[in-house]
Amino acid sequence: MWRVATVVTLHDETATARTITLEVQDWPGHVAGQHVDVRLTASDRYSAVRSYSIASAPNSRSRIELTVERLPNGEVSPYLTQEVAIGDRLEVRGPVGGWFVWRAEQTEPIQLVAGGSGIVPLMAMIRSRAAAVSTAPFRLLYSVRDPGAIFYRDELRALSDNRDSASVTFAYTRTIPRDWPRPPGRIDATLVAETAWPSVIVPTCYVCGPTSFVESVTNLLSASGNQREKIKTERFGSTGEHT
Ligand SMILES: Cc1cc2nc3c(=O)[nH]c(=O)nc-3n(C[C@H](O)[C@H](O)[C@H](O)COP(=O)(O)OP(=O)(O)OC[C@H]3O[C@@H](n4cnc5c(N)ncnc54)[C@H](O)[C@@H]3O)c2cc1C
Hints:
It is a single chain. This protein is α/β, with parallel strands linked by helices. It folds into two domains: 3-96, Translation factors (Elongation Factor Tu (Ef-tu), domain 3, Beta Barrel), CATH 2.40.30; 110-236, Nucleotide-binding domain of ferredoxin-NADP reductase (FNR) module (Rossmann fold, 3-Layer(aba) Sandwich), CATH 3.40.50. Helix content is 20%, strand content 33%. It contains five helices and twelve strands. The chain has helices at 77-83, 119-131, 153-161, 189-195, 211-223, and strands at residues 2-12, 17-24, 35-41, 47-53, 63-69, 89-96, 110-115, 138-144, 167-172, 204-209, 231-235, 241-242. It has a seven-stranded antiparallel beta sheet. The chain is globular. The chain starts with a strand and ends with a strand. The site of flavin-adenine dinucleotide has 23 residues, from strand 4 and strand 5. Flavin-adenine dinucleotide is lined by residues 35, 50-53, 67-69, 71, 73-77, 117, 120, 210, 234, 236-240.
């Protein structure tokens, strides 16, 4: 079922990513980790559909936030990050997904691992934890190209400054901030051993990002002793669909 969604705010997260707040007619509510399908239809009836994770925590208002990273040659993401304006109407279907979700009843340790825009559904989990005043221990390992590519920068910084809250570790693949203790590089076994929950405490792991990132991190978590069924994954591969 497609619902009408009106753009109510726009916020640039980075030079190439934008958060869009949508007010969705008759929104049934969602759980952190779920996504929606967004359909854009041109005046000649050509339409394109793409999936986008929900970044916001469940709330009593009919509002959801999406954060979209612009792909230079993409069909839909350049429109959503550059063209869409407040008051515009889109169509959304969802929420979709029942496996890659975190619910406030979960009290076990949680390990989140994000690559690039894969932070979006994990941010919904972090925000849900805060909204529910949950004390479930959360750790986030977030891989980005460079410091300018971090989404939700201030919120994550506040989180890592607050010792009682979730802990955040950044991993930079290309450019590191000055005085950063590690050279640039991909997440590897050493970084997992130093920053992720040890597997003996049996964390539930959520891994999200491009397909190759998800596969590599899943192998690392598994090699460090985590059971495969405790590792939940979401792949941001191409979702191209048009009519
Ligand atoms: C469950 C799910 C949730 C998602 N959530 C988000 C989200 O929160 N934020 C977000 O920015 N994106 C998200 N995506 C990706 C999104 O659905 C689109 O694939 C992306 O925005 C590209 O669409 P496009 O029309 O701009 O590019 P297209 O015109 O579809 O593709 C252009 C080119 O880029 C390649 N490509 C397509 N998608 C990707 C990708 N994700 N990474 C690298 N190359 C790609 C294509 O193969 C093609 O060569 C999600 C995908 C899934 C499956």
